[in-house]
Amino acid sequence: MGKPHQSSDDAVALTPGESGRRVNDVDYVRRDEALAMLGIKKESLYTYVSRGLIKTLTEPGRRTSLYRKSDLEKLSTRVGAKGGGAPVAQSLRYGEPVVQTSICEISTAGPRYRGQPATTLAREGRSLEYVADLLWGGLPPARDRPWPVMEDESAEMRGKLVSMPQQADAFSPIRVLAMAALQLSALEAAGDARGHGDARVSGLRLINAFSGISGYFGPDHAYATVIADEFVAWRVLRGFGLAGRPDADQLLAAINAALVLSVDNELSAPTFCARISSSTGVDMYACVASALMAQAGPMQAGGMMDLEQYLAEVLCADRPMAYTGVPCFGHPLYDRDPRAELLLEMVRDLSGAAATRERLLEFVDAVHRRTGAYPNLFAALVILAHVLGLPAGAAVYLHCLGRTAGWVAHAAEQRLSGVMLRPRARYVGARPAGSF
In the CATH hierarchy, which fold is given to the domain comprising 106-425? Predict the structure, then answer.
């Protein structure tokens, strides 16, 4: 894995009069604002930069730097906490930790799943089943093996899942998944489900049901039924209609890596939703449904749909392209998202769709040269889906399928804590005269 990216002098273009630059929800500010945010002298600011606590970009045409605002907010949170303040807003936006977890840790090399680097697990070809059992059980499984077939306990439930393709055009992939989760929740509430309240059983049923939805994106436009002794990644490949290709093994490795790399990334907003829901006592299916709806927002996986359209225009060679403000490029927690680096490395090695692959990878390189921005995992998934020739929404689907394993782990961990998450708000509005 390469060293953290340092931008060149032509990395960022600023509009005159702006105090900073926003790049995919990552804000940068100039030195004066950075000093004001922290209440420190410039010498201390430079010390923070040299220690790697604040990332910078060079402002074009000037011998000055821009400072990443989220890093400044983290440091501001620490300063405020030491001074007895309560900087809640900063804590909840890439700030100090607000939840204790043993599931996932963010590192410069990407997320670690219970201490094991996600990129290593993906590179070694560990299955989604292996990683899910690692997160759900706390210990590495003895070996990779498919999960047992879990038949739908209700004919009505199975019928609703199978009939969903007729509705798929009217709903986003995330909403289709959420509908399936809510159907499972209804079954649980009716007391018709085996393993009632068992987190692992719920996780198996969710991922089994969700993996069948892969068939919506394939040539059959039908629910992909479960086959015994079949890994989730192969079922997805089969649902996509790619299992018969001569390079199926290569495609399987890429899809499996996409699922494994998507499993968790610590306390994202949708994951926080899953934990909050779990802390109230609702069933696992409702927790995942709440996370899915948060994931649908444009600041989360919903932004992948924007990138799909953007890259479709990139593939039209006769159209001039803008290289700034590209959706899903850059990540607040990584200089270069290691998950995206690995997945794009696998995309480069794919044997099919050479023209599409080369065109998209050339675009990635051009954006990186001109702006310093590098694709995050969302972008890498969209590029993979384009190269595989999958329809719109397939990349979002892949991410949510993999992330479901992480949501189940977080919801189960939160429930075991026995604590209901109920953050307090710091009121800053008007008060009646004379009140305290």
Answer: Citrate Synthase; domain 1 (1.10.580)
